[in-house]
Amino acid sequence: MNTISLSSTAIKNMFDQLQQNFSGNLSVKVKEHILDIDNEFGRGRIRGITFKSGISLLEFDVKFSQDFTLRAGTAENPPICFAYCLRGKVTHSFGNQSNKKVLENFQTGILTNKAFEENVLHFTKGEHIKISLIVVKTTSNQNILRKHNLNYRIQKSFLRGEESKNSIYIGSYNLKIADKIQQLEAIQQRGIVRSLMIEGLVHLILAYEIQQHTDDVKNKEMNKGNLTHRELGAVREVSKTIQNFPESQHSISELSHQSGLSPGKLQEGFKLMHGTTVSDYIRALRVEKAEELIKTSDLNISQVVYSVGFTSRSYFSKIFKQKYNCSPKEYKEKQQLMSLSA
């Protein structure tokens, strides 16, 4: 088994050390570090970025060619790490301790550790791993903490004014976070716009992870629901199909047949992932696509209505107004006025 030790938690230093060990191609754009690997160690991508707030994002999307252990050292004030496994599974342990915890796909994890203790991640040969780590910097300097209010509140909530200790929480299965990470991966913009969009989604994912922890504490027992890993994956595939073709006349029976899930399981999965029913999810995507077409195309309202899959203009106008607080016609007129003034 190969082992790599990282002596720094700073993204720049970390990626310099990763490249020294893995080789690969390292690129840096607006503080976003990307290491592409395609050699005897494995194939995939490791990405990292640090924001001014002291929050960092570290992502692994890799398949290693051999069993591999990553040991990451920490400083006097260890960060709080929020993990989410999108694919495969990763095993974690502290330092040289034999006790290990497994983070499976669609699960959240929150870990803290005592000063100067190592976090050890164990990757299995041949397994495709996709894991996101949101790292929140901590400090004992109260003046610095108050400059970054979000960090202060997170540190206060999870450390409660005490010294950081070794602890790892493995949370419930959460498909909403998988959806947000998919949006994170889909960002095509560049420069400062890209950085702002990544930071916004990272904060949203962080909020979902903290909310998951809060819900689990209230429920006391882990709430996996009745869905297996395969079923959770099938729900994600159905979601992608609807996202790609919202205008199609999807039916519950058709989607159930395609996914191999019963209608009840499919609805349960959508409640878990999107907080809504299949029908409401389809309707919401159609309205969003219609808004985009009204804003960017020359289609009239009726053409927009039918191109996104609605069959009634009056019904579309009703739900559009509920969402945007104006009728489609008023919205189009405002867009035209803005174009003329520009």
From TrEMBL:
It comes from the Bacteria. SMART domains: HTH_ARAC (SM00342). Keywords: DNA-binding, Transcription, Transcription regulation. This is Regulatory protein. GO terms for molecular function: DNA-binding transcription factor activity; sequence-specific DNA binding. The keyword Transcription regulation applies. Residues 236-334 form the HTH araC/xylS-type domain. It comes from Cyclobacterium qasimii M12-11B. InterPro entries: Homeodomain-like_sf (IPR009057), HTH_AraC (IPR018060), PchR_regulatory_protein (IPR053142), Tscrpt_reg_AraC-type_HTH (IPR020449). Pfam families: HTH_18 (PF12833). The keyword Transcription applies.
